[in-house]
Amino acid sequence: MKSAIKNIATLGKFTISLPVAFTAYIGYTLFSEQQSAEGLLAGLGIFFMSAGASGINQMQEVSRDRLMSRTSHRPLPKEHFTFGTAAAIIGLFLITGTILLLLFNVHAVFWGWMGLLWYNLVYTPLKTRTAFSVFPGAIVGAIPPIAGWVAAGGSIIDVRIHFLAFFFFLGQMPHFWLLVLKYKQQYKKAGFPVITDHLNNQQLFRINMIWSIATLVSVLFLPILNIITSQLIEIIVSLSVITMSIWVIASTYSLHQVHMKSLLKKQFIFFNSFYLWIMILLLIEQI
């Protein structure tokens, strides 16, 4: 039983689907201006949609997953599930997610499915064709907060959700560059084109620094657009951005002095922790 639950969680990439759901909850909370059980329900709907999309992705890439040590343990390469069983589980994810989002409105359902279709029909095929698939792929990260926003009754033409989506879009780039640097040999073994075929490690680290700084600077616009209104939170955010920016620049230019693997790990953890910190501050604002 424990093994089956673990395999289902791996098929749905629950460790990734959970933070995806959190961004949907952020979108819901920012429009409703309060934390609520309804917001959690909307986030849960996106969680199941994300799990379904992840399962479909694993069905699409099962032959490549077998070739990479980081993915070879998944239930389909290991044949813990048949394709029929996986399809049934994925179907259950998607039905549950759709029903939960339908409790709010059809707009939430639309954006939930838009995320899935973009991920599985646009981004996943492009991964095998171009090393620059990260750009259309980053759109996937911008969709969940939109879904949460419209579930709460927000308008898609509101500039605040446009910027919030842009903030999450920008953050996908450093996340992706660091993963490519860490697992480039596995990606190449599986037949994926990688950006390191075009750029060396130092160039990619510097590009990653630029995208990281752009993401950090974008946070400073949150108070300007009244997404953050508390003066205390604004000060904390500004200090966090300055501190993180200095660290990103200093760590990038120390590449020749430290082991690349160690630097990759630190930048990956610190950058994702910063994102989580900003989301927590956005929620604290609504208390």
TrEMBL record:
The chain crosses the membrane at residues 7-28, 40-59, 80-104, 110-126, 138-157, 163-181, 209-229, 235-256, 268-284. It catalyses: heme b + (2E,6E)-farnesyl diphosphate + H2O = Fe(II)-heme o + diphosphate. Coiled coil: none annotated. Its EC number is 2.5.1.141. GO terms for molecular function: protoheme IX farnesyltransferase activity. InterPro entries: Protohaem_IX_farnesylTrfase, UbiA_prenyltransferase, UbiA_sf. The keyword Membrane applies. This is heme o synthase. It is found in: Membrane. Signal peptide: none annotated. GO terms for cellular component: membrane.
